[in-house]
């Protein structure tokens, strides 16, 4: 028996998620951004949400924006749609869900990468 062979499951196929709609909540940076870009590379339309946008940074004042993530999604082959959303605010989450239902007819993939715990960390003490 030989060594296992790597198989590219995408070989000979079109984008696996073409026509699918995803939300990556908290997709501004880090793992959320990476997942959002990979969903785009697989052909999905990705609504990327977060609090840091070109309109203003979150209270943590980090430089990355949802618009940058959306651009990377589009560059990867998907459609990136940035929607500034504070997921701690039920009205904003409801508005996001209503927008997706109206614009895209529904949702196929939901990824929760919301962090928001920075204010509760104390890096000076174990």
Give a brief outline of the structure.
By secondary structure, this protein is an alpha/beta fold.
What is the distance, rounded to the nearest whole angstrom, between the alpha carbons of the first and last residues?
50 Å
What's the CATH C level?
Alpha Beta
Structural shape: globular
Give me the CATH superfamily: NAD(P)-binding Rossmann-like Domain
Look up the CATH topology.
Rossmann fold
Q: Biggest sheet, open or closed, and with what strands and sense?
A: 4 strands, parallel
- CATH architecture title: 3-Layer(aba) Sandwich
Relative strand content: 15-25%
Query: How many distinct folded domains?
Result: 1
List how many beta strands DSSP finds.
Answer: 4
Strand order of the largest sheet: 3-2-1-4
Helix share of residues? 25-40%
User: Could you give the order of the helices and strands?
Assistant: EHEHEHE
Structural class: alpha/beta
Mean pLDDT: 87
Q: What Rg do the Cα atoms give?
A: 17 Å
| Count of runs of 4 or more consecutive helical residues | 3
Indicate the low-confidence ranges by residue numbers.
5-9
Question: Can you describe this structure?
Answer:
It is globular and about 50 Å long. The protein has helices spanning 30-41, 66-75, 90-104, and strands at residues 21-25, 45-50, 79-84, 109-112. The model is unreliable at 5-9 (pLDDT under 50). It is built from three helices and four strands; from the N terminus they run βαβαβαβ. Helix 1 (30-41) runs parallel beside helix 2. The termini are far apart. Strands 3-2-1-4 form a four-stranded parallel sheet, sandwiched between helices. The relative contact order is 0.21. The chain has 126 residues and is α/β, with parallel strands linked by helices. Strand 1, helix 1 and strand 2 (45-50) form a beta-alpha-beta unit. It has one domain (21-115): Rossmann fold, CATH 3.40.50.720.
């Amino acid at each position: 028996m030989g060594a296992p062979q790597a198989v590219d499951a995408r070989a000979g196929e079109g984008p696996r998620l073409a026509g699918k709609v995803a939300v990556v909540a908290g997709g501004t940076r880090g793992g959320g951004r990476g997942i959002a870009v990979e969903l785009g590379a697989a052909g999905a339309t990705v609504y990327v949400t977060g609090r840091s946008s070109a309109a203003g940074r979150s209270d943590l004042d980090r430089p990355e924006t949802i618009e940058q993530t959306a651009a990377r999604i589009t560059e990867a082959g998907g459609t990136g749609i940035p929607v500034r959303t504070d997921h701690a605010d039920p009205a904003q989450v409801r508005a996001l869900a209503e927008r997706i239902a109206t614009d895209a007819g529904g949702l196929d993939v939901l990824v929760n990468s919301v962090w928001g715990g920075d204010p509760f960390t104390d890096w000076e003490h174990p």
